[in-house]
Amino acid sequence: MRWNMMILASCLATAGCVGNSMSERQDANIESSLQYDSVPCDQLLAQRNGLAQQYSLPTTAKPTFSNPAMGFGPFTPDLRSKAKRDSDKATGEIDAMNRSIERRDCGKPDKQKKLALPG
Q1: What is the pLDDT of residues 30-68, one digit of tens each?
Q2: What is the largest CA-CA distance in the chain?
Q3: DSSP for 46-95, written as a single string
Q4: Which residues pair with 77 in a beta bridge?
Q5: Confidence of residue 88 (pLDDT cuts 50, 70, 90)
Q6: Which of 45, 38, 29 is nearest to 102 (CA)?
Q7: What is the rounded distance in angstroms from the CA atom of residue 79 to the CA atom of residue 86?
Q8: Which member of 58, 59, 61, 80 lies 3.0 to 4.6 Å from 91 by CB, making a disulfide possible if both were Cys?
Q9: What are the helix and strand counts (H, E) for the chain?
Q10: Confidence (pLDDT) at 77
Q11: In the chain, what is the straight-line distance between the N-terminal and C-terminal CA atoms, in Å?
């Protein structure tokens, strides 16, 4: 009975760290690109470029994930600095914007203009 209580207590103590874990916070950086589909292409391109410039990131930035010890991801505390967390969040936003830009062919000439005969 004593071992069961010790195991239960350690599980509860560890569960308190789960909301602040590295893997949970990194997963939160992934955003849906659908939210950007209503933003006009020129504004979205400017917004993406501005965000990339603000955080000194490439406009092709993609989120990265740390590789914690096998099975300990949910229990590894997030020890990144605030600047690194903000930069990682911006990377997720840039990636979502890029997926919307690519899906909608933003920044590319209209396909109709390519087919028009020279006048």
Answers
A1: 888 899 999 999 999 999 999 999 999 999 998 877 665
A2: 89
A3: HHHHHHHHHTT--TT-------PSTT-GGGSB----HHHHHHHHHHHHHH
A4: 21
A5: confident
A6: 45
A7: 13
A8: 61
A9: 5, 0
A10: 73
A11: 89
Residue 47 CA: distances (Å) to CA of 42, 43, 79, 102? 9, 6, 29, 15
2: Cβ contacts below 8 Å, ≥ 6 apart? none
Confirm if 52 and 59 have CB atoms less than 8 A apart.
Answer: yes
Output the six-digit token pair for 9: 């207590």
Contact 23, 64 (CB under 8 A): no
| Selected residue with higher pLDDT from 115 and 97 | 97
Closest by CA position to 97, among listed 71, 70, 63: 63
In the three-class reduction of DSSP (H, G, I as helix; E, B as strand; rest coil), residue 31 is classed as coil
pLDDT in the model for residue 12: 47
| Cβ–Cβ under 8 Å, residues 70 and 28 | no
With tokens 């917004």, the residue in question is 47
